[in-house]
Amino acid sequence: MNTPLVGIIMGSDSDLKTMSGASEMLEKFAVPYEITVASAHRSPARAKKYASSARERGLKVIIAGAGGAAHLAGSLAAETTLPVIGVPINATPLNGLDALLATVQMPAGVPVATMALDQPGARNAGILAVQILAVSDENLNRKLDQYKTELAQGVEDKAERLKSRTRV
Ligand code: RP5
After folding, report:
1. CATH number, domain at 26?
2. Whose CA is nearest to atom 6 of ligand 1?
3. Of 49, 51, 87, 107, which one's alpha carbon is 20 to 30 angstroms from that of 8?
4. What is the pLDDT of residues 64-78, one digit of tens each?
5. How many CA atoms lie within 13 A of 163 on its CB side?
6. Which residues pair with 63 in a beta bridge?
């Protein structure tokens, strides 16, 4: 087993469906990762231990997803100098606005790179983690270039399909 480079952590197992967007992207780029649950509110000691031991365990980036009054990413960022990427999750009647504001509005000195809500945010968290690792990994960088090409080709394909449907 390769040592995990990215840690995916979420506030509850009910966040897994959303956070699988991050793990799928890491698998696409063959980046080893670990995945677990810890809550800033329900298990603050576990969350603190995870963050404070992350660097010595070999992690390079942490991705944290949570819903509600989502303090997980910020509380992890308080305990580590590793980059922390936050994914706000829509888990309450406020449709995720609570999680978005709690994740994004960090005080100066403790950054959290906050993504979009839910699946798009989780997928982007995976890509951003790969981009951070690719700063010092040319092989990963080549894969990212290829991914950009695939994205652009996807748009070309859509434009072609639309053209044939609308005959413009
Ligand atoms: C947050 O509360 C979790 O991140 C989750 O999004 C939300 C609901 O958790 P459960 O009640 O489903 O465990 O802490």
Report:
1. 3.40.50.1970
2. 67
3. 107
4. 999 999 999 999 999
5. 6
6. 8, 85
